[in-house]
Amino acid sequence: CRWIYWKMKCLSGHGITPHSDLDSISKQLRFFTFLREPVTRCASDYQFRVVRGGLKQPFHEWVRTEYAGNQQTLKIAGRPDADAAIEILDSKVGFVGLLERFDESLVLLQRWAQPMGLDIRYQAKNVSGNSSIKTQLLTNPESLSLLREVNQEDLKLYRYVNEEIYPKRVSSFEGDLANAVEDFQRTNQPPAVYPRQIGSVLLREMIYKP
To answer: What's the farthest any 2 CA atoms get from each other in the chain?
Structure first.
């Protein structure tokens, strides 16, 4: 991948995990990640699979599968273990953002990623126009109890990040963070196509994928 994308500066995606040996390729590699409140994430995941993926499995069956709970600790640590995930965040992951504070997290990420000149402008995608399934799951006591039960490790991890890691990142920001977020939101208008992406698209479609 580095041979084909000789100007590559960043990798992203669900397959980029800090518990892997990816950092053995380069000692300069820095990991970052975003977390989402686990119960809401799990309910939203089920809704996405039903609406977009055509899933027919009832919720009370799906929520017990390996695809449902503790997915964030699993991605970070390779297993659903909050303590292991916390250790990795503390030792290998330089930045952790929160989906619930997304714009603020992006501003913090941009500052952390200097001097790469990270462009944090974005356009929301894969946003469901109908959240009825998720809402029903989160307001029904039985399904809500199941969501909490299968996400105990993720909840522990999220609490740690929300109470320990993220506040330290906010407090270390130099300048007025609230104003910086407002400035970003006013200018958050990404172009339809980034010219520098054209070369990467050609490489991906004509060389890397084949």
So the answer is: 53
Average pLDDT of the segment spanning 16-29: 86
Q: How far is it, in rounded angstroms, from Cα 57 to Cα 50?
A: 8
Distance CA 167, CA 118 (A): 22
Taking 3-state DSSP, the helix, strand and coil percentages for the chain, each rounded to the nearest 5, stand at 55, 5, 40
User: Does residue 35 contact residue 158 with C-beta atoms inside 8 Å?
Assistant: yes
b/e per residue 139-161 (b: at least 16 CB within 10 A): eeeebeebbeebbebbbbbbebb
Amino acid identity at 104: E
The model's pLDDT over 125-172, given as tens digits with 9 standing for 90+, comes to 877 778 999 999 999 999 999 999 999 999 999 999 999 999 999 999
Residue 189 dihedral angles phi and psi, to the nearest 5° = -135, 85
Q: What is the pTM of this model?
A: 0.90
Amino acid (one-letter) located at 192: A
Cα separation, 156 vs 128, whole angstroms: 27
